[in-house]
Amino acid sequence: MPEVESRAVSKLRTERIRFAYEETTVLADLSVDVPQGRITSIVGPNGCGKSTLLRAMARLLKPRSGTVYLDGEAIANLATREVAKRLGVLPQDPRAPEGLTVRELASQGRYPHQSFLRQWSKSDERAVARSLEITGVDEFADRSLDTLSGGQRQRAWISMALAQETDTLLLDEPTTYLDMGHQLEVLELLARLNREEKQTSVMVLHDLNSAARYSHHMIALCEGAVHTAGPPHEVVTPRVIRDIFGVEADIIYDRRNGSPQCLPYQLLRAAED
């Protein structure tokens, strides 16, 4: 588990945001803080509002009430190009045109920096080259995305976000549909970006144990509200798991890094879709 600092400045925060689809409330007066320079994971059962919260933070969804703040400013008041310069977003199931190469995808991350007066430049070229190198996809930069493995594709998409040269990444279930090896590949990359680049990352994860292992901070949602937030050892507990998942579990601690790991053994209520 990454070393947790007791005090960290808030990078992103929400203040009593509410979001609903028609008459169904998904988020209710929800307030959260994302520590700067840390990895934060949002966890919880299906339908609890994890992806909705992430998309609201990215300004992809507009809350019915409440405010999202980025660097202390209301994100709704910022120009779209300015938000794109500060936030890199990787959706749950990103799509690209057929035949697009890895380099072409990474180059799209420079669009927020382009304008009528500022066209493609050497600084753009350097940013793309650096993003390809950091994510380890430079060796197949000229290959089509559809020829890559799942883990390679995810790293290519992350390279596009890095080419934006933002200091914050929002990732919606970045390990979904990946096997164990490719999941590890992506999570290790995010951990390295945090260590070496001081990248702030916020990710929605279904795997509670991966979230605990790779996060400094966790936010556990239940029915559109924050049940518990804090370092992994305060979130991954028998009580929290019982409350939000309806499961009895033992908690052990990884001898390699001390992260809490959940061992479920009894279902207390039927899981909901």
UniProtKB/TrEMBL annotation:
One GO term of the biological process aspect: iron ion transport
UniProt-recorded name of the protein: Iron complex transport system ATP-binding protein
Record's bilayer topology term: Peripheral membrane protein
Molecular functions per Gene Ontology: ATP binding; ATP hydrolysis activity
Keyword entries, A-Z: ATP-binding, Cell membrane, Ion transport, Iron, Iron transport, Membrane, Nucleotide-binding, Transport
SUPFAM superfamilies in the cross-refs: P-loop containing nucleoside triphosphate hydrolases (SSF52540)
Keyword Nucleotidyltransferase: no
UniProt-annotated location(s): Cell membrane
Domain of life of the native organism: Bacteria
Domain ABC transporter: from-to ranges: 12-248
A Pfam family assignment: ABC_tran
Transmembrane segments: none
Record carries keyword Ion transport: yes
